[in-house]
Amino acid sequence: MANVAHVDYYEVLSVSRECGDQELKTAYRKLAMQFHPDRNPDNPEAEERFKQASEAYQVLSDPDKRAAYDRYGHAGVNGAAGGFPGGVDLGDIFGDFFGEMFNVAGGRSGRASRAQRGRDIRYDLTLEFEEAVFGKETTVTIKRMDICGECRGSGAAHGKSANVCQQCGGRGQVRFQQGFFSIARTCPICSGTGQVITEPCHTCHGEARVEKEHIIQVKIPAGVEDGTRIRYQGEGDAGRFGGNSGDLYVVLAVKPHAYFEREGHDLHFAVIISFPQAALGAEIAIQTLEGETVLKIPEGTQSGKEFRLRGKGVPYLNERGRGDLIVQTVVETPKKLTKAQREAIQQLGSALGVENRVASRGLLDKMKDLFS
């Protein structure tokens, strides 16, 4: 199974991003009943699915955590502890499960609302490495559906209006009796709106919306990662017949850097030094994201030695502080030597008493990591 920290919480629960609390609760209850460890003893896969569903519900059922997750993804909530979410009543989760699956005949009824929520929009934005680290403000141009100005969102021609659907009587649903149960389905004639437009608007052709371009101001916070989603509520397609607008999701793609590698909030950088610099020590100029700085190389520095520059890494997203810049030294061995250089190195070798030694396994592993 995939690690839950990298799985979309909405996909885990098989719900849409605009789902309500009750839909979220029902989806979680079904998964929890299906994969609960008590019902699946000695089944690691079922246990992992149960933990995934519990973690997803724990985040999405909390308004603040859900808002942070919708805006920044996993980086906004820093994951969540696995296991059954605190404060959830087991009886409440499982008690009315069958009551929601079936509606007993003679139960709830009523007319359907025509309102339909607008579609969410995705915009992919590519950033330079430095822009992701330090943040930026920019504008993006999107196309979205806006309320039709001709019919003012009714979908009907000027002076006309929609008629009540004769198939469902305006309820938006048709019911079928099966034994003791009455099963409701969306009306196939009006698609659940309860009304039918017989004379559509000439501008939007009954859609109630028209496509327009919009320029959106986008603020990228410092410290975002590749794949981060930023949510702009209400900037998606307009809803139909009074429904709420969808959201705009700006999905970030970060270009790799020429020589920095990012791991979380730390940056890694390799610098090549000469044998004399490693043996005798030196002060060398190295590059950081803010410019050059001086790194002191002590005497006897070995290839693969790491130096940590505090606070020179990536800022924490929506928090104070930054990660570190970790500089790894690579000692360069000259490939071509003059006669004088060769004699000098031979004399140095004689003076040092160079001899072969067996390297420990730990050292060999470090060297493999260094040159891999």
Sum up the structure in keywords.
HSP40/DNAj peptide-binding domain, alpha+beta, Helix Hairpins, 372 residues, 26% strand, 4-stranded mixed sheet
Overview of the structural elements:
- It is a single chain.
- The chain has 372 residues and is of the alpha+beta class.
- The protein has helices at residues 9-13, 21-35, 44-60, 63-72, 74-77, 90-94, 97-101, 129-134, 275-280, 339-352, 361-371; strands at residues 121-127, 136-147, 163-164, 173-178, 181-186, 195-196, 209-220, 229-232, 248-254, 261-263, 266-274, 282-288, 291-297, 306-309, 325-332.
- Helix 2 packs antiparallel against helix 3 (44-60).
- Strand 4 and strand 5 (181-186) form a beta hairpin.
- Among the domains are: 1-101, DnaJ domain (Helix Hairpins); 261-371, Sandwich (HSP40/DNAj peptide-binding domain).
List strands and helices in order, with pairings.
Layout: H1 9-13, H2 21-35, H3 44-60, H4 63-72, H5 74-77, H6 90-94, H7 97-101, E1 121-127, H8 129-134, E2 136-147, E3 163-164, E4 173-178, E5 181-186, E6 195-196, E7 209-220, E8 229-232, E9 248-254, E10 261-263, E11 266-274, H9 275-280, E12 282-288, E13 291-297, E14 306-309, E15 325-332, H10 339-352, H11 361-371
Parallel strand pairs: 1-9, 11-15
Antiparallel strand pairs: 2-7, 3-6, 4-5, 8-9, 10-11, 12-13, 14-15
Brief summary of the model shown:
It is built from eleven helices and 15 strands.
The 3D shape can be described as elongated
Radius of gyration: 31 Å
Q: What is the first-to-last residue Cα distance?
A: 28 Å
Unreliable stretches: 1-5, 79-110
Protein structure class: alpha+beta
- The number of helical elements comes to 11
Number of strands: 15
Strand order of the largest sheet: 10-11-15-14
Helix fraction?
Answer: 25-40%
Largest sheet, in brief, is:
4 strands, mixed
For the record, what is the CATH homologous superfamily label of the domain at 261-371? Urease metallochaperone UreE, N-terminal domain
